[in-house]
Amino acid sequence: MKLALAFLTCVLAASAAGIDGQWNAELTARGKKAAAAPAKGFTLSLKSQDGQVTGSVMVPGKKRSRPLNIQNARFDGNRLTFTTVQTGKNKEAVSFSWQVTVNGDQMTGTRTREGGKHGVPFKARKSS
Fold first, then answer.
1. Cα-to-chain-centroid distance, residue 14
2. How far is CA 57 from CA 2, 5, 14, 70, in A?
3. In the CATH hierarchy, which fold is given to the domain comprising 2-126?
4. Domain locations along the chain
5. What tens digit of pLDDT does each residue of 5-35 get?
6. Euclidean distance between CA atoms 125 and 118, whole angstroms
């Protein structure tokens, strides 16, 4: 029993360590304007330690990129969920939930604005 528990702990730790690093990602536009809209790139920086996942999402801005800290992160198997909060056009806080599936050096998922009905899909590839 103790051996099985130790093995499971090692597997979970190795799984979480697989997400550590930088991930280059692109949001895919949806709807009628999807063909005309270029894909929006961003970078995920993730770190796992003692069962906790921390990091940031670096999004391009008009003048410079800005980091959004990852909050409420949960990593279970190959599924990662977290939230980010950014300042909207009217200086209000806008929350996004992220649903991510990790598969080796690739990840896919959706980013959904709080109160939104549909998420925006994205794909990412590990760069380091």
1. 19
2. 38, 34, 23, 7
3. Lipocalin (2.40.128)
4. 2-126
5. 333 333 333 345 589 999 999 998 776 665 5
6. 23
